[in-house]
Design brief:
Elements (H helix, E strand, L loop, with lengths): L10 H36 L4 H18 L12
């Protein structure tokens, strides 16, 4: 990446640059999220299911794991 000499910028210019950078970062994050969403949708559709079906399966797996771990906690230490 090119090195930028910021020492010649005044405070107002630096704040303007900071604003522009933060704005661009937010836009790129939105773009990347939109692109990832499109990729996920394509994979889900290719598999012949909906996102709701996919998430429902994940929620079932999570619920089953939590239910299996329930029960009375075991005592620590030797039995007296």
């Amino acid at each position: 990446m090119a090195q930028i000499d910021l020492s010649n910028y005044n405070l107002g210019e630096l704040k303007g640059l900071q604003f522009d950078v933060e704005k661009e970062l937010k836009e790129r994050q939105r773009h990347d999220l939109r692109k990832a969403r499109e990729q996920v949708m394509a994979i889900v559709q290719e598999a012949g299911m909906s996102v709701d079906e996919l998430l429902a399966e994940r929620n079932k797996d999570n619920a089953a794991g939590k239910a299996a771990g329930r029960g009375r906690p075991k005592k620590a230490g030797p039995e007296a």
